[in-house]
Amino acid sequence: MRSKYVFIPVLLLAWAALAQVPIDPRTSVKVNFPNDSPLSLVSADWGETRATARGGALVLDLHTSLSLKNSGARRIRSVTLLVLAQEVTPGGKASVAVPSLNVASGETFPVRVDLRLLRPLTPNTGPLVEVKLDGILFDDLSFFGPNRLNSRRTMTAWELEAQRDRKYFKSVLEARGPEALRQDVVASLARQAERPRLDLQMARSGRATAAGAGQELKLAFLKLGDSPVEAISGEALVAGNEMRAPRLDIRNLSKREVDYIEIGWILEDRAGRQFLAGAMPAELKLAPGAASQVQQETSLRFNSRTGPPLAIRSIKGYVSQVQFASGDTWIPSRASLEAARLLGTVAPSAEELRLTELYRKRGLTALVEELKKF
Amino acid sequence: MKHPSESELALMAGGELGLFDKHRVRRHLDQCPDCRATSLAFARDRELVRDWAGELPANLNWNRLAMEMKANIHVGIEADQCVAAVGRGFAFGSRQVVALASAVLTVVLGFWLNLPQPAPAPVAEKAGVTLEATGAGIELKQDNRSLTLLNPGSEPVAVSVNMQGVLRARYVDSETGHVTITNVYAQ
User: For residue A139, what are the domain limits?
Assistant: First the structure.
């Protein structure tokens, strides 16, 4: 009797095969680097890249590992790749960056790109995804690339953080020996594990949810001793787990013109938990001693992955980055972060992550050897 | 020819059959005078019951009547199943018909889903753009379209948002040990 129904799973399999839209990564995904780029694509492993029809939509799951080669003479510290899917999200884009590299001339390194596109079924008229080079930062802080994402500024800050944290771990090793370094790295791993995780939702020029109108909350600011810019005061609208339209007044304390600042936000909820929520950047022209107001028409909603629902009680800000008109960049020192008790709240730098992961995987000897390379 | 059951004919007379069953039974009634007569009889009975309803005595025990009606319906259904088990000489049973219909439907649906559909009108740039960080990754959504940078098998160490419209997640690649930072932009 059962044999009569064997054709059902066979037909279902046939349907499943029909639902898998054939996709050729070579035509659906385009990797495009400039001809004069000191970075070249050696190979691309497309792994389990596939497209599936779901309802009236096409779902593209792209999983690739690009093998890139440093064809230039200088050592590469960071790379940012721009990922464009204009048909899917007009005006929207994404990027994948790999900081804390140390790639010598002629060496290769992998960059993984895992993404999913969801869009209405339409005749395919070109590549669904385009991967382009946005920038390369070298060990002398020089830069190559179109810089559409302002990746030069971002990667420079990452590299300064890397230099700061390497210097810190080296100083611990030199002053107090390998055992002290081990203790410091274990403490860092513990901080990383204890950092609370947040789910975030952001909407520009509007509210992220239909929560109530909310109340205006005065912002508090942490003073980092060596900061060239001071945040004087600020307000934001807060309703439950939602924060809207933050506004703040800042002053340039330095003797140099400032053209970019970033303020980091730390939320505290009614349960006393602290979360690093993100940053408020502002491009401006701030003469020495001058003050200015910065405002963003943005709504943010936060959800805690663990524990009770998040209800914002207070918001603290601190100056996390300053770029001067000369091109120099300031970031907080490790000592000032520690003094402001921010080390446990702010995200560890990419270099601290890399070094602690190296210790976790390969032990103290490998970490000491790595620090000696710089 | 397979005849509909009496319960199906009764439901047909009352207009209570489902869409596909109604179509199937109606086609059968067009060709089968016996079933058509039975269906008409059910319809007449229905009209008679409706007429008599106004003449029912006021002291009628409705609960008892309902129980008797339920019992009669069950007896009728069971009797119909007994007759069906003996067989009416059909080459193709109802299970096979249902299985074949389901399979044909799934194949047709699969084929239809793969047909290129007309693209909707382009939405206004930046209208309704949201950025979202979830357990799966960081996502840029606009209407019925989305672009998600997926977590590469591990939880991000840090997720943060830049209020100019950038959502960022930071991972350590467990295979290479490299730190990878993914961003989606709503600008």
Answer: 20-147
